[in-house]
Protein 1
Amino acid sequence: MNLNIQHSFKALADPTRRQILVHLSQQEMTIAEITDQFDMTRAAIKKHLNILESGSLISVKTNGRERINSLETEGLRTITDWLSYFDQFWDKKLSLLQTAITNNENDINKES
Amino acid sequence: MNLNIQHSFKALADPTRRQILVHLSQQEMTIAEITDQFDMTRAAIKKHLNILESGSLISVKTNGRERINSLETEGLRTITDWLSYFDQFWDKKLSLLQTAITNNENDINKES
DNA sequence: AAGTAAATTAACTATGAATCTAAATATACA
DNA sequence: TGTATATTTAGATTCATAGTTAATTTACTT
């Protein structure tokens, strides 16, 4: 179920799930802590977390009886990779920016 | 209905709609031409086009009895803007890249 | 004006998604 | 061992989505 572009896009298509990601970007959280931030049952949040996990947008580690959810960038990378195909169709100004990025990427590669 | 982030994310959540965007990136097309590329009725494609339009991912211009659909980058920009918030959580290498982008953005703004 | 071609809309069906309540698991600790 | 805490799962409900066929509008063509 790893790195499925469809799962990643589906996961981002719900506003609650996008908000969860924003919260997790601030700090990793248990499902109880996440649920506190929403007007929704824990069971509902759990389903959202499952969907986020299947989109490689979060990862979960077990600590005793708690499960700690944290942001996982792999899914975000999948999405931006897909989107990057369209960069060539953006406006001139952005095209310039993209060229600059590409050049800088080369520089960075040389450094490492 | 303009520039609704939710509509843009929803629109990208369907694989057929993402494929339509890829086709439109090659050339603008009528609904008939798009339909030829898929194993699906024109009515179904029309619904997808409506959803893409409401996500500002395509725009439509009328030419006689034809409607020409073409890629509209505004929705893509909305998505990448949202995603860019998470750039700070990616790995070091990418962080460096982001800094480079920001610097170049400033340069470009100075120029214009 | 009549006929044809392109596109849209309407009405329906089947499946999936988001939510709830309630029950079941699993771990911690007194 | 028993109870409290954290999480997960099951089942039901409601609404949304993706698709179909059939009917309707709009604009060319002869």
Note: Residues 14, 16, 40-41, 43-44, 47-48, 51, 64-66 of chain A lie near DNA strand C (CB under 10 Å from a C1').
Protein 2
Amino acid sequence: MGASKLDIYTDQIIEIAAFAKVFAHPARVAILQYISKQENCICNDIVDEIGLAQATISQHLKVINEAGLLKGNFEGKSVCYCLNTIRFKEFQDAFNSYFNTTQTNCCSI
Amino acid sequence: MGASKLDIYTDQIIEIAAFAKVFAHPARVAILQYISKQENCICNDIVDEIGLAQATISQHLKVINEAGLLKGNFEGKSVCYCLNTIRFKEFQDAFNSYFNTTQTNCCSI
DNA sequence: TCGTAATATTGCAATATTACGATATGAAAT
DNA sequence: ATTTCATATCGTAATATTGCAATATTACGA
């Protein structure tokens, strides 16, 4: 096979995995970090910064956008991609919620 | 292609991506959650709980273990896998550190 | 020692991801 | 209107991941 069996997991677990997937590639981690630092973030800047082809960056941006992590002006020549900080905080909260409820020790070795 | 270009990223970014990859599959998220709840966690219990084949679970456990997230008794018939809470906390701290330094807003749309 | 129970490894098929060149699109400038 | 610039999409090749059956390993008990 190769496809994930999604029907056997709870919604919370699927959400965490989906969130983690966004960060599971260094290009996307780097892109998010870069976007948060810039006043005006257009794709070509990111291309120069990260060192991947424009098509590849655009593809990663799509993944980030589909996760709801972008906002801004998507039209015209001077696109301004920005981090959706509210959504970003949702990610952080979901991770922390998962981490904080998954720390019980089961044995003392 | 298909392989990641790792040489163009900082160590922090590669670490975050590697950490996220562990959680990027619902089976591993579920396994970690399950392990943390049990007194004695042996693989067969997990197989029954998660609903994947024993070989598949074992494979996911290997990924989790290679990330340093397991500890316990790995020998004999009655293995006891436990969550390495110290390492787990390292993951949480790395994520939070990344999240907290990546929240600056770049435009006000 | 032999069998058994529990877990790991191997090999393979199906699918997903990553990367990039080529091309399309869309808005602004000329 | 045409060109230009910035970004998106398409097509495709390379690689990675997921899942499982079959088999190997390993420790314990009879």
Note: DSSP finds five helices and two strands in chain A.
